[in-house]
């Protein structure tokens, strides 16, 4: 029987490899909503186009723990992400890969596919559910179709600091959210940090809600993100991340919103002249694995992957915060005019989007929204 299982596993592995290779080939031809081939080369860091340098980063922690020995089989994890090789997200997946490969002497291999090469967030989550991709690391916003309660993190101005976000995400409430993926074809291992979202556009400086009026903006595929910008008088369009650069370059949209490190490492500054430090939403990432693949793994490998995901989360938060302000300054070096809002100006945005809470708290669950707000308030009082 073991021979049959191992043969099946080999066939699945070969099939998976064929699917992923076909997908990678298709992506190279620009078929997967990723950046068209030309821009992928740029995003790959050709000198003189993509931003080649990076901030002084805290080095990844030493890899500790025994090597896992025994005839537990060999597996390859194809790990797709939306951001580029210079992003803190990518750097953290390299650390995840190194932990697995070192602790199993290469019996667990990780192949990283950045730049939406094997699909955008929704496509990669679907690929996990169908077992054609092993891991991905999307924002919570596009995952609300699978776990609706995640929408609480789409509420504007919810977290006053990254530490307050960590407090909630790493609490029992956060674990409850991750556990809600069980049975959906996805196992959610840990949160990480996408970060505070900042508005950019090609038209004008923005320092008040009035300046937003009439802007055509790309937003994530999530109804609350659409509502936020419609409430501010913009014309929001939901779009997969891999299509954003081209849409801005062709003038299909005037702007988008993402953390400074994404705006920098996805070269958005090349087509966006104005940035505003709105910090209007804090978006978490989720490190996730295909439930089908997870269930086939020996328990020792499951434990290692869970441990590695939590270490990856902790490290990614550190370098994400090191990238944040450094990226803002690099964007200025690249010619972007960045408006830093005063507390008063940011309060004007908060007041303008209060109706979003009123409309969506009942949808998300008043009790859940209040639980998160109480945890944040208690944390801020410490
Ligand atoms: C990358 C996306 C991105 C998100 C977005 O896969 O879509 O704008 O902020 O980070 O998840």
From TrEMBL:
Q: Which Pfam families match?
A: DctP
Q: GO terms for CC?
A: outer membrane-bounded periplasmic space
Major location (coarse): other
Q: Does the keyword Heme apply?
A: no
Which terms under GO biological process does the entry name? transmembrane transport
Cell location: Cell envelope
InterPro entries found in the cross-reference section: DctP_fam, TRAP_DctP, TRAP_DctP_sf
* Cross-referenced PROSITE patterns: PROKAR_LIPOPROTEIN
Q: Where is this region: Disordered?
A: 36-62
Write the signal peptide boundaries.
1-26
Q: Which domain of life is it from?
A: Bacteria
The protein's UniProt keywords, in alphabetical order, are: Signal, Transport
Acyltransferase keyword on record: no
Q: Which family does it belong to?
A: Belongs to the bacterial solute-binding protein 7 family.
Protein name, UniProt field: TRAP transporter substrate-binding protein
């Amino acid at each position: 029987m073991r021979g049959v299982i191992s043969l099946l596993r080999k066939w699945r592995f070969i099939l998976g490899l064929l699917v992923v290779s076909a997908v990678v080939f298709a992506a190279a031809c620009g078929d997967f909503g990723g950046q068209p081939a030309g821009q992928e080369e740029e995003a790959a860091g050709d000198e003189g186009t993509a931003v080649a340098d990076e901030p002084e980063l805290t080095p990844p922690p030493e890899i500790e723990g025994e090597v896992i020995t025994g005839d537990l089989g060999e597996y390859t994890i194809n790990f797709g992400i939306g951001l580029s090789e210079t992003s803190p997200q990518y750097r953290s997946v390299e650390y995840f890969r190194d932990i697995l490969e070192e602790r199993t002497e290469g019996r667990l291999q990780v192949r990283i596919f950045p730049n939406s090469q094997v699909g955008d967030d929704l496509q990669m989550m679907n690929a996990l559910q169908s077992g054609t991709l092993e891991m991905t690391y999307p924002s919570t916003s596009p995952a609300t179709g699978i776990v609706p309660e995640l929408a609480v993190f789409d509420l504007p101005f919810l977290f006053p600091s990254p530490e307050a976000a960590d407090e909630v995400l790493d609490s029992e409430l956060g674990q409850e959210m991750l556990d809600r993926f069980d049975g959906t074809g996805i196992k959610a291992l840990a949160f990480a940090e996408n970060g505070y979202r900042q508005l950019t556009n090609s038209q004008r400086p923005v320092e008040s809600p009035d300046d937003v009026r009439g802007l055509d903006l790309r937003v994530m595929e999530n109804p609350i993100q659409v509502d936020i910008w419609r409430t501010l008088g913009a014309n929001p369009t939901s779009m997969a991340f891999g299509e954003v650069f081209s849409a801005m370059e062709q003038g299909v949209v005037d702007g988008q919103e993402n953390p400074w490190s994404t705006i920098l490492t996805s070269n958005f500054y090349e087509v966006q002249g104005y940035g505003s430090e709105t910090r209007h939403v804090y978006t978490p990432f989720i490190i996730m694995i295909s439930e089908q693949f997870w269930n086939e793994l020996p328990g020792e490998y499951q434990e290692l992957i869970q441990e590695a995901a939590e270490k990856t989360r902790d490290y990614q938060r550190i370098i994400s915060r090191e990238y944040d302000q450094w990226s803002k300054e690099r964007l200025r070096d690249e010619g972007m005019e960045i408006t830093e809002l005063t507390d008063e100006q940011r309060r004007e945005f908060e007041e303008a989007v209060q109706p979003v809470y009123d409309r969506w708290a009942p949808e998300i669950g008043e009790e859940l929204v209040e639980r998160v707000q109480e945890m944040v308030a208690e944390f801020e009082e410490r």
